[in-house]
Amino acid sequence: MQQPLYILTEDTQRTQGRNAQDSNIRAGKAVANAVRTTLGPRGMDKMLVDASGTVVVTNDGATILGEMDIEHPAAKMIVEVAETQEESVGDGTTTAAVLAGELLARAEDLLDSDLHPTVVVEGYDEAVGIALTAIGEMTLEADLDDDLLARVAESSMTGKGTGDVSAEILAERVVAAVRHVTTDGDIDHDSIHITTHTGASSSATRLVEGVVVDKDPLVDAMPRSVEEATVAVVDVKLDVRKSSVDTEYAITSVDQLDAALDAEETELRGYASALADAGVDVVFCTKKVDDRVANHLARAGILAFGNVKGSDATAIARAVGARRLGTVADIDPDDLGYADSVDIERFGTDDLVVVEGGAAAAAVTLLLRGGTEHVVDELERAVTDAVDGVVAAVESGGVVPGAGATEIAVVSRVREAAARIAGRKQLAVEAFADAVEALPRTLAENTGMDPIDAMVDLRTHHEREGRAGIISGGRTGSVGDPVEYGILDPAAVKREAVGSAAEAATMILRIDDVIAAR
């Protein structure tokens, strides 16, 4: 008899055919359902506790999926959808994850009806093109002024924890931050910094036209506030120079020892003198600063900080218009920066350095406050989404109505197009529309509305008015025009969510064999 041929090791687990498809689809649906209840202005939070006991409370989809300990490979692909959405446009992660799960759920019904996965994939691909066209048609033609961008920022933060400060106030500061780093229509996103600090209520959050650094001065005797400061950012040790080779010096008299100490002291004093002679008022050094140099700087009235992080040094240099110096000898005035003020402010038991450059500052900082770490962490996530949303709206093609209105328009257009598609592919296109429709239905459920009645009203209002969304108010919601209520989303967020969700779903549907080593 012919001996059996083993290609895989005995401990390899293999799942084939429909069993593999069912397993992958169930995993994708489970991940989507984990974040479904967080969608919308009345969405709920999730509490995630890791093995060490660290607690995260949030309704941010990317954070929830990132914190979950997921092992199933198909489920990880849905997580990657959220990560891609976060990296590309910074918002809409929950929408993308929920849509991917819904596309898989609708595909499961089609597979049960003996529709081939390839036909489903082709139908989904065609539906994506129709959906993107519908999103383009829903894009508002209005100018992106500050009021409109503030509505975008506020919509991004609605439903997220912002403490005792309103989303409206935060939105105004977010727009001001983005406008501050915009030059000729180009946004320097890297110049927008977000810093958090506990010890005060969220209403103490403020916009700093400059940067905020968590550092203490080298010597307590140094000034705590400098107005109209000349700033140097130094990338060299202000310490006694050491030889690169091992060297021994033979000292045979006290005079020789005194001479050596005098030379060392002269070198250290020279650092402070060079900075003082150049007119420097504030020094940020990324390397070690000798205590004696610090004392000389203090006597010269110079405020100095040592061992500054490289990222902080870059932000400071950008904010004050300075170049990072590799030496303090022969300082060129053009290499120095200028700040309206450099202040050491006390926050509870900590000191923070606030470098403000005024209107000329090339960087801004949103200093977020909160009573606890959980509050400031969630506030940071909300503000980050708002900043990314405003940037996406400006850079990537305008805004569309929110509150599910754009999704309803997509559903209407896709269903209309499906009627003209021949063959079984029509079923997949219609299934795509059903999956997208699950988004406004979920919004209605989370808002407290009856989902069936809400969907009927949405379709009717959309056909009659051209725009219809779920407007949250009180304990329930109503159907209305989101634009009238200032509920707006970046068009790029919708495009990315539809595209990335469909790509993940179709990739999972193509898999019919899972081979995994134990």
From TrEMBL:
Entry's Gene Ontology molecular function annotations: ATP binding; ATP hydrolysis activity; ATP-dependent protein folding chaperone; unfolded protein binding
Record keyword ATP-binding present: yes
Transmembrane spans: none
One Pfam family this sequence matches: Cpn60_TCP1
InterPro entries according to UniProt: Chaperone_TCP-1, Chaperonin_TCP-1_CS, Cpn60/GroEL/TCP-1, GroEL-like_apical_dom_sf, GROEL-like_equatorial_sf, TCP-1-like_intermed_sf, TCP-1_chaperonin, thermosome_alpha
Compositionally biased spans, kind Polar residues: 14-23
Alphabetical keyword list: ATP-binding, Chaperone, Nucleotide-binding
Region (Disordered): 1-23
Signal peptide start and end residues: none
Protein name: Thermosome subunit
Record organism: Haloplanus aerogenes
